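Exercise 3.2. Students should predict the tertiary structure of the chain below and write it as structure tokens, then compare their answer with the key that follows.

Predict this chain's 3D structure.
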Amino acid sequence: MAGSDPQKLMTKADKLTKLTLTRWSADWRSATQLYEQAAIAFRLAKEYEKAKTAFEKASKGQEMLSSPWDAAKHMESAAALAKELGSWTEVSDLYRRASELYNECGRSQPASDALAKGARILEDAAPDEAVRMYADACTFLEEDGKEQMAFDLYRAATNVYLKLEKYTDAASFLLKWGVAADKCNATNSQCKAYLSAIIVYLYAHDFKQAEKCYNDCSQIETFVNSDQNRCASKLLSAYQEGDIEEIKRLAQTSTISHLDHMIIRLARKLPTGDLDAARSNEANQDEALDENDLT
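Answer key:
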């Protein structure tokens, strides 16, 4: 059978799944074995489109045989072939389907891994979908109480947002990372995520949002007592004072050097915005407060 024409195997398998006057029930077990053999043969022959179709049918067969784990494995094989074909929409669809099948088995880690594989493939071709897949991969782990296993996914998604220059989205994702770290008592990662978000806002010239982020994070005791908080406070003070040299000095400190490389790169480019704008913003806020002072 191994040397058989894979197309003939597919035709035979298709017949076994169809009901006729003489076949009152589909023989999914035999058909699935034939689809699997055909898929492997097509893949070896580098007939990727046919191999992808065969793996999809083999996956369907395993589903019919109540074996979602094997169905998921075949769906991942189909997704990998979609990558070879440059069919990016199918890469997303097939990895998502594989993830759903793993989830049916109650296996959050493989379900998350399948989405992460698809996301890594799509980072350049379809970055928006890649970020969505990373986010969904994080959700699978977090719902299963495995927040710490999602850290690399948060890092990858943030990096994609930074490449797209979607700084607000990047900062928001970093703050979500901080929340996930808090849930698993990873205080160092939590504080790093908060400082990273503040740096991203500063890099995007959004001093007001950086300050708001700092104030919000400072409601959390863990952050208040951290080196990352002290560094953020000094950075914001340097911005308010227009002290370019102090900003550059802080960017070289060990607290920032221990952040992720993608954030270090941004920090080392600070200040990027107009420091006068940051100071004038503070001045305007002070004037507004004075006008409202009725004492």
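Discussion points: The chain has a mean pLDDT of 92. Residues 172 and 257 are 21 Å apart (CA to CA).
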